[in-house]
Amino acid sequence: MKVLNYEMESSTLLTIASVFGLKAAMVASVIAVRGKQETPDDKILPRAEERLANCIREALSLYLTGDSYA
Question: Cα–Cα distance between 8 and 44 in angstroms, integer?
């Protein structure tokens, strides 16, 4: 299937935000290869959390300054 993310809850968040005319975002991090193992490797969690935090900081910075990658 080549699916990296089984996350479902953010669709509700994004739908509700859209209904109310609000902006919303979601950032996910891949911490387990579900085809090989079901449980995340504890050794990669700190790095995944760090990368996730960096992504969120960058996105907020771009949003607050009105910049974009385009």
Answer: 22
Question: CA 56 to CA 52: how far, in whole Å?
Answer: 6
Whether residue 52 contacts residue 27, with contact meaning beta carbons closer than 8 Å, is answered with yes
Cα separation, 54 vs 34, in Å, equals 24
- CA distance between the termini of the chain: 30
Tokens of 6: 């089984």
pLDDT means per 10 residues, the chain with 70 residues, are: 72 93 86 75 88 92 79
Contact 13, 26 (CB under 8 A): yes
CA dihedral over 56, 62, 66, 70, signed as positive or negative: negative
